[in-house]
Amino acid sequence: MTALGPLDELVGYHLRRASSAMKSDFAQTFAETAMRQVLFGVLSVVSAAPGTSQGKVGEALGIQRANMVALVNDLVDLGLVARKTARRDRRAFSLNLTPAGEAKLREMLEQIRTHEDRMLQNLTTEERETLIALLRKVHAPTST
């Protein structure tokens, strides 16, 4: 293995490499479909909070409002999400999974679990849980 010098001690370097490896394998897993990680993320949040607004989904995933419109349009066009005007705020849209969206979410989750098992095969269940907990501290730090 080639020496990395100071890079070997930098968390950001290792996070980027791990992220790149995960993203590449994910892309290969779903290469024959129109699905991307971000679309799965939207489906997942809508599944967890039926009737939620586009804005709330964007906030949960760290996606800008302008980008959310295009993502939701893609999911509506694919028949996976139903969008309707929210009752409480006529300027907002509420989102729900369609039956096809629920089926797609289940199908993707099964494929993603296989993808993660492949990518994380050298980690124990406890190590995976620790990794997720540590990564949450990085991307969603609490204020003190």
TrEMBL record:
InterPro entries (alphabetical): HTH_MarR-typ, MarR/SlyA-like, WH-like_DNA-bd_sf, WH_DNA-bd_sf
tRNA-binding listed as a keyword: no
Keyword terms, alphabetized: DNA-binding
HTH marR-type domain sequence ranges: 8-140
Gene Ontology molecular-function annotations: DNA binding
Domain of life: Bacteria
The UniProt record lists the keyword DNA-binding: yes
Stated name of the protein: DNA-binding MarR family transcriptional regulator
